[in-house]
Amino acid sequence: MRMNTTYTSYVAVGDSFTEGMSDGLPDGSYRGWADLLAARLAARTPGFRYANLAVRGKLIGQIVDEQADPAAAMGADLVTLVGGLNDVLRPKCDVEQVCGLLEDAAGRLAPSCKQLVLMRSPGRRGPVLGRFLPRMEELFSFIDGLAARHGAIVVDLFASEALGDQRMWAEDRLHLNAEGHRRVAEAVWQALGHEPEADWDAPLPPAVRPGWAARRASDARFAREHLGPWIGRRLTGRSSGDGRPPKRAELLPYEG
Asked: What does the record give as EC number (predicted)?
């Protein structure tokens, strides 16, 4: 690992996790761990530049087709690549094909930057996660080997008990909340060799289980506001990212 390396530019590649859902800002936009990381790096380096090509809902094939080459062409010092989880969480998935596409993306990005960062994505602990665990483990094992081949850093977020805690997740049960994103930014910061500013994997206090009525109300709200629309998009072949431009399409000076 490069310790205390100075990065003058950063490009983030990925899906909703890297776009920053659901770390909401007052104007309705999202911040997220990549923005938080860029802000920290910019504070250390005058003229620091940042681009975030991530778009919610993107599958790994779309990330390769739409983001990999533009990101590589930017020639940034630092690149983060996180993708494939949207694929493995679908009812049908060819994990071997997903891994091949990740290999393609890493092969384009690694030669273009000083440091490529990959991740074992966090997972919300619960019965739904268990259904997809074998696929995720296969994907994460491949990512470990991919990193070794390309000299990339792997940030293991999935192993974190804290990030798996349901209190770190938004009401949609698919995306981290603000505290979850803050911890991810700290994890990447430390993986890059910087001095810790906090314990990103610090345990949460014991949870207080909500009452029956509160749980049923939460389940009903989740089904109405999140699960129903998600099923509708799946049935009609639509994605939440259809027609949506990249979050920050150009490598420009960062201004917090």
From this structure: 3.1.-.-
* Residue 102 token pair: 């990740």
β partners of residue 81: 13, 118
Q: Catalogue the E-assigned strands of 45-150.
A: 49-52, 78-82, 115-120
| Residues 29, 196: Cα–Cα separation, whole Å | 28
Comparing C-alpha atoms, which of 146, 142, 140, 145 is closest to residue 160? 140
Q: Which two tokens stand for residue 140?
A: 């994460």
Task: Dump pLDDT digits (tens) for 158-202.
Answer: 999 999 999 999 999 899 999 999 999 999 999 999 999 999 999
Distance in angstroms (rounded) separating the CA atoms of residues 15 and 60: 9
Q: What is the pTM of this model?
A: 0.90
Angle at 252 between CA 147 and CA 68, to 5 degrees: 35
Residue 217: which residues within 8 A CB-CB, separation 6 or more? none
